[in-house]
Design a protein that fits this description.
Layout (H helix, E strand, L loop, with lengths): L5 H15 L6 H7 L4 H4 L6 H19 L11 H18 L5 H9 L4 H22 L5 H25 L3 H11 L3
Helix pairs in contact: 1-2, 1-4, 4-7, 5-9, 6-7, 7-8, 8-9
Length: about 180
């Protein structure tokens, strides 16, 4: 069955980028994974760079809609929001055994491509703003920003370690630490 929807191509591409890296994934790899001939990809995307950027935007939108938005649901208490926020992060990163596309691309592409760098920064800033929004209800702005930045950095580092050691123990400590702030 041929894949013709852009979303399906992006989902397959994201998986390849996470597992093979951006530089080690070719348009031919993507076409093969999508059961398409290489030329068919160009009906949807101009280049691998466009697929890479659209992949980042696609994942960013997922996080905005399904995780970061939790921070702004003021019908929940701050602790409930933080707990649900962490739970949804865990579902994405642990239950789906999902590596972080932004972490990979940050290491691989941010220093060489300003478009990728900006999209990666936008994602991490969205994450930071969401956490700060929750934390601001209990802490002053400067403290909230510091906690949010620390959490994101620790999460990204623990995701790399989780892959190296096949253990999510350190990753899980970060969420628990954040929830204990309330």
């Amino acid at each position: 069955m041929q894949i013709t929807r852009k979303e399906e191509i992006l989902e397959k591409s994201i998986n390849l980028f996470k597992n093979k890296s951006y530089h080690n994934t070719s348009m031919s790899n993507i076409a093969s994974e999508c059961d398409l001939i290489k030329g068919s990809l160009y009906h949807h995307f101009k280049s691998k760079e466009e697929i890479g950027l659209e992949s980042l935007k696609y994942v960013h939108k997922y996080f905005n809609d399904n995780i970061f938005s939790i921070a702004y649901n003021t019908k929940l208490t701050t602790k409930e929001r933080m707990t649900l926020f962490i739970q949804k992060l865990d579902e994405y990163f642990i239950e789906n055994k999902s590596k972080c596309l932004f972490g990979h691309f940050s290491l691989e592409l941010a220093s060489e491509n300003d478009k990728f760098k900006q999209e990666i920064k936008d994602y991490f800033l969205s994450w930071e703003k969401a956490l700060v929004f929750i934390l601001n209800e209990e802490y002053e702005e400067k403290t909230s920003v510091s906690y949010a930045q620390e959490c994101i950095a620790l999460t990204q580092g623990s995701l790399m370690m989780m892959g190296l050691y096949d253990s999510n123990e350190n990753y899980l400590k970060i969420g628990k630490k954040l929830i204990k702030l309330f």
